[in-house]
Amino acid sequence: MNRRTFLLATTAAGAFSQIKAQPLPNPLPRWRGFNLLEKFVAREGGSGRRGMYRESDFEWMANWGFDFVRLPMSYRCWAPGDPDHWTELNETVLKEVDAAVRLGKQYNLHVNLNLHRIPGYCVNPPAEALNLWTDDRALEAAVFHWKHLAQRYKGIPNAEVSFDLINEPANVSEAAYVRVVRALVEGIRSVDRERLIIADGLQYGTLPVFGLAGTGLGQSTRGYAPMVVSHYGANWVQGSSDWAVPTWPAKGSNGSVEALRRNMIEPWQKLQAKGVGIHVGEWGCYNRTPHEVALAWMEDQLKLWQAAGWGWSLWNFRGAFGILNSDRPDVAYKDFKGARLDEKMLELLRRY
After folding, report:
1. Chain CA centroid to CA 215, Å
2. Which long-range contacts (CB under 8 A, 24 or more apart) does 295-300 make?
3. Residue 110: closest CA among 159, 166, 145
4. Quick one: how many helices (H) and strands (E) in the chain?
5. 293-296 long-range CB contacts below 8 Å, 24 or more apart?
6. Residues 212, 49: Cα–Cα separation, whole Å
7. What is the chain's Cα-based Rg?
8. Which of these, 42, 146, 158, 330, is most buried using a 10 Å CB contact count?
9. Which residues, including other chains, have CB under 8 Å from residue 65's CB and lie 6 or more apart?
10. How far apart are alpha carbons 8 and 175 in whole angstroms?
């Protein structure tokens, strides 16, 4: 090796060590907050509103120092689930979403609008009548809904509102998913070229989508690994009530901080290195996991995301994963304005 080659090699090695030592740049802000579920599912038996967003939720989040709220919504809250009527919009319900956007602005919380159920796909039952990945009629309806939202919020700065296209795509190839995402993005940008758009990762949000790098989209990952900790006793996860009571670190090859880093951080950092912003759109621990185990696991997740420069959004604010009214049997709750507050979890979240 001549002197010039040696110098180039050592300089590169030094630069690489500096890159390794520092968080990668993340084009998305490190937003931190919660999911609110008022439009998560439609009213029993069909379309219609499930609930109205509460101003107190926005106020309390802001007062505690958070700056982000994700709204996972079902399109069936404002449109019928029948494909023949997919484009019939209920303006009354959509005005309730408008009100949430205004509350975000009022309390300096970024509002991320997500279609948890979109025409043709939902990760939760019941299945949609048509398949978004294969049926052009479903895709046309999905584009229609996002174009409507794009028009509705056109002119509102990206600092205040972003779009998260499809919640947790699963059992779909990357090629099919990329095709659908590109169609949705094209529809949105035909109305509002500047809107900040985020796409969930593949396989329930856990895998980065390299086929979308270079499109200007951010991507959203998840923080539920390992599920033997996060979903112990969850009644919608078959067999989870028979799992061993969780510990952290957990038993098995995926139950350590190093496993989290290897499986849930490093693959996404490869995408981040291509200039794609990363955010953890959902994470949390169900209320059957012992509280101290949940907090220990949560703190390790938070440390990893802080080091990576990623923000996060806990599922949920009020409810079994949240800091309010979570019904954990082993927590001494504090009364907070009529709600039961998990002070330890709140203080942990505020530290990171």
Report:
1. 19
2. 295/344, 295/345, 295/348, 296/248, 297/229, 297/230, 297/246, 297/248, 298/345, 298/348, 298/349, 299/348, 299/352, 300/248, 300/257, 300/260
3. 159
4. 11, 11
5. 293/229, 293/246, 293/247, 293/248, 294/229, 294/345, 295/344, 295/345, 295/348, 296/248
6. 33
7. 21
8. 146
9. 350
10. 39
Please work out, in degrees rounded to the nearest 5, the angle formed at the alpha carbon of residue 66 by the alpha carbons of 60 and 72: 85
Across 215-332, the runs of DSSP E, i.e. the strands, are: 218-223, 278-283, 311-314
| Cis peptide bond prior to 80, omega within 30° of 0 | no
CB 116 within 8 A of CB 145: no
Contact 92, 83 (CB under 8 A): no
Q: Is the dihedral of CA 265, 132, 236, 69 positive or negative?
A: positive
Domain range list for the chain: 28-351
Residues 6+ apart with CB under 8 A from 72: 35, 37, 39, 40, 114, 116, 167
Q: Whose structure tokens read 């978004």?
A: 132
For the chain, 352 residues long, give each residue's pLDDT as a single digit of tens. Answer: 333 332 323 323 332 222 233 456 789 999 999 999 999 999 755 555 578 999 999 999 999 999 999 999 999 999 999 999 999 999 999 999 999 999 999 999 999 999 999 999 999 999 999 999 999 999 999 999 999 999 999 999 999 999 999 999 999 999 999 999 999 999 999 999 999 999 999 999 999 999 999 999 999 999 999 999 999 999 999 999 999 999 999 988 889 999 999 999 999 999 999 999 999 999 999 999 999 999 999 999 999 999 999 999 999 999 999 999 999 999 999 999 999 999 999 999 999 9
Spatial contact of 66 and 98, defined as CB atoms under 8 Å apart: no
Under DSSP, is residue 115 helix (H, G, I), strand (E, B) or coil? strand
> What is the token pair recorded at 237?
């996860």
Map residue 317 onto helix, strand or coil.
coil
3-state secondary structure of 159: coil
Q: Which CATH number fits domain 28-351: 3.40.50.800, 3.40.1050.10, 3.40.50.920, 3.20.20.80?
A: 3.20.20.80
